[in-house]
Write a structure and sequence with these properties.
443 residues; mainly alpha; globular
Length: 443
């Protein structure tokens, strides 16, 4: 142990900071929630849904959000995180214990970030990981029964395995397996095996080695997800992991787009869909069986307005890079911060007055907004400069791959973008910014 401490002091420091911050923030959030009469394990609606699924897995051996028989099978949420929660509950025997055990396990994420970045810039890896370990939103989601922090840790683990997969079939297989698990935790990862395979084909030489590694990654990822896909096909006639992606097209993207571009034909389609949706029980309204209806209706809404929607979709990714997220967190604890405007929607629709009125309102929410948008705005600018420097050949090409992953999550998240969905790539943004700053300082 002494030898390890002496040989890897940075790892030890990052692990200590992350562990203390993670457990400390969990204790603080539990105390604040309890003081407000809230259940610390079920602060958000999503957390309540995950708890219900995990409880049914433990007690009824079914994957359902129903509270009594018959337990209609769930297909809106993916199974990975509820299984993870059920496993942790088996170990701890309580949801409060599960919260602390999760925070303990996920404190490894900053260490994984350090190990990933270290080969390209050791100082950036260290300081980027320290900032990531202390980042408030990462701490909140690590202390909440939500899938985001687990997914972020899995993504880092998959990248570490990919980094070591050159000439190693075991690491290539591990990469595919972790990606498969990631898809079952958050279906947004469904295309990542092909992105990782593309990186292997592009960077590994000889080409045959890259082809083999890429093939192993994709095949293992598919095989990992296949049992769940077969279950869904048997029950709902779809191989998709969940219906959440298709549902969001009509439940969120379409109405937000119509605020920006109120095309009469699209409005008629959406109102017809909304009326039909509201008449269905929850288990049918969000079922995988309705994915063809979600996608077909969405295509009708944007028909003839595809370019307009593309602009809208890209513009609405701004919160992914700039949103502070802290206001959303403190509001969960019954702290009054006023009505927050949808800034990107107001900008798109020309209602700048709403934004100005909000900013002139003062209070803690405004300061959090200013601090958050300043920090993430500067971080994003430094990341963009990192991309430029990489394209000019002045930084290792792996920074470009991390940039591809950042754009992957930003664009696939699109109009639902907020700080929560930035969590999987926060570490990459911070480390990229640190690399640019430190490289300039060293020069």
């Amino acid at each position: 142990m002494k030898q390890f401490l002496a040989r890897h002091p940075h790892i030890v420091r990052i692990a200590a900071v992350s562990l203390i911050a993670g457990l400390g923030s969990t204790g603080f959030l539990v105390w604040v929630a309890s003081a407000q009469g809230l259940n610390p394990a079920a602060i958000t609606g999503d957390a309540k849904g995950y708890l219900l699924l995990a409880d049914n897995l433990r007690t009824q051996q079914v994957f359902s959000v129903a509270t009594s028989a018959p337990f209609y099978p769930e297909s809106f949420r993916a199974p990975g995180y509820p299984f993870f929660l059920a496993l942790l509950y088996t170990v701890t025997g309580s949801w409060l214990g599960t919260l602390f055990l999760q925070a303990l396990l996920l404190s490894v994420a900053p260490v994984l970030l350090y190990l990933l970045i270290r080969p390209y810039h050791e100082r950036a890896a260290f300081w980027g990981s320290i900032v990531y370990a202390l980042e408030p939103l990462r701490l909140f989601y690590s202390a909440s029964l939500l899938s985001d922090a687990l997914f972020a840790a899995l993504l880092l683990a998959a990248l570490l395995c990919l980094q070591r997969a050159r000439g190693s079939w075991r690491y290539a297989g591990a990469t595919g397996f972790i990606l498969g698990i990631s898809i079952l935790v958050r279906p947004i990862a469904v295309f990542l095996p092909f992105v990782f395979a593309g990186f292997a084909l592009w960077s590994y030489r000889p080409l045959l080695q890259g082809v083999k590694i890429a093939g192993i990654i994709v095949v293992i990822a598919v095989l990992t997800v296949l049992p769940w896909s077969l279950r869904n096909y048997e029950l709902f006639g779809s191989f998709n992991v969940s219906s959440v992606g298709a549902a969001n097209l009509m439940l969120y993207n379409a109405p937000e787009f119509l605020k920006f571009n109120p095309a009469p034909e699209g409005r008629v389609v959406y109102e017809r869909f909304k009326e039909e949706q509201e008449m269905l029980p929850r288990e049918e309204a969000l079922s995988l069986a309705r994915t063809p209806i979600f996608t077909a209706s969405f295509k009708e809404v944007i028909q003839g307005e595809e370019l307009s929607y593309l602009f809208f979709h890209v513009f609405k990714t701004m919160p992914f890079f700039l949103s502070d997220g802290l206001r959303d967190v403190i509001r969960l604890f019954n702290v009054e911060i006023g009505t927050m405007p949808n800034i990107t929607t107001d900008l798109l629709t020309g209602r700048v007055g709403n934004i100005i009125s909000y900013l002139l309102g003062g209070g803690i929410a405004i300061w959090l907004f200013i601090i958050g948008i300043t920090f993430w705005g500067i971080t994003t600018l430094f990341w963009l400069w990192c991309v430029v420097q990489t394209l000019r050949g002045r930084m290792h090409y792996s920074w470009a791959f991390l940039g591809v992953l950042i754009l992957y999550f930003a664009l696939l998240t699109g109009p639902v973008s907020n700080a929560r969905y930035r969590l999987p790539i926060e570490g990459f943004l911070i480390a990229s910014a640190a690399a640019v700053v430190l490289k300039r300082h060293e020069a």
